[in-house]
């Protein structure tokens, strides 16, 4: 080491010249104890006696300026679960230890209204995702230990509410809709969760989620036009969560093509799915007939069915068709017209 610019030889000893104020160890490291009557900015002076191996001695002055003690502020940890959006609040003392149960913590909330959390046995408190603000809110927190004055903690940010989503996907072939609710982190909900999506006249359509995290809405239950609105997810044993901007697609209508051979009068009936593909053999189609009695046709391998001219009504009959695929419920098809029976003409030569 050095003292006053000189190299210190080994074997040098050190003694405090001002015991009680200054202590010095055998390496010459000085510790100063600040008297209680001293204020920040005051100087504390003392001296150390250095005795060299050759017997010579030297006094080294020591001067310390008193600095204000560090203000020790507690902290508030705010941690959000990416899956649920729920927040865990953990107030900590300056030394990192936790606060006792019953301590209350206020964290910033919407419009200046703080969110109050009570700390439990584990030193933490919970804020459900549903109680969080729409956007994150920075500000000051407040810790109130039972029977003690509140302590303010600067620079605490409350995270934003996390919103789950509802995916609504329509099969272009069948028109059936698959509904998949997803948590904020993209994971699925458990079986038995119910989802409401917008329906006709403000009546929501309710779907129950299965093992695969999805639910089905048959095309027949969909509204005639698409319906935008709000969805709702209810996980078993938990409160419902609203999901904005969910649109239920419109019912997709299959068609029934009715084509009459101008020569024979026979009619070919071709039912088509919403995407234009044909139905399987064994599908039955009803088209309007005389006196409200429909004509039933069975579809063959080519996706078509035949009605002989002799079975057609005398005049054309507009109405509703019906397609029944094997093992599935019947689907009604509006605006189907059955043409009139054609009467063959006979050329008579004069």
Explain the overall architecture.
The chain is mainly β and 350 residues long. It folds into 4 domains: 2-65, no CATH class; 75-158, Sandwich (Immunoglobulin-like), CATH 2.60.40; 165-248, Sandwich (Immunoglobulin-like); 255-338, Immunoglobulin-like. It is built from no helices and 28 strands. The strands form 9 sheets. Strands 11-10-13-14 form a 4-stranded antiparallel sheet, with no helix packed on it. A 4-stranded antiparallel sheet has the order 18-17-20-21, with no helix packed on it. Strands 25-24-27-28 form a 4-stranded antiparallel sheet, with no helix packed on it.
Beta strand count: 28
Query: For the record, what CATH class of the largest domain applies?
Result: Mainly Beta
Mean pLDDT: 91
Beta-strand percentage range: 35-45%
Main sheet specs = 4 strands, antiparallel
Task: Provide the low-confidence segments as ranges.
Answer: none
Overall number of structural domains: 4
Number of helices: 0
- Level-2 CATH architecture of the largest domain: Sandwich
SS-derived structural category: mainly beta
Instruction: Round the Cα radius of gyration to an integer and report it.
Output: 43 Å
The CATH topology annotation of the largest domain reads as Immunoglobulin-like
- Please estimate the helix content: under 10%
Order of helices and strands: EEEEEEEEEEEEEEEEEEEEEEEEEEEE
Q: Report, as a whole number of angstroms, the end-to-end distance.
A: 143 Å
Shape: rod-shaped
Q: Order of strands in the sheet with the most strands?
A: 11-10-13-14
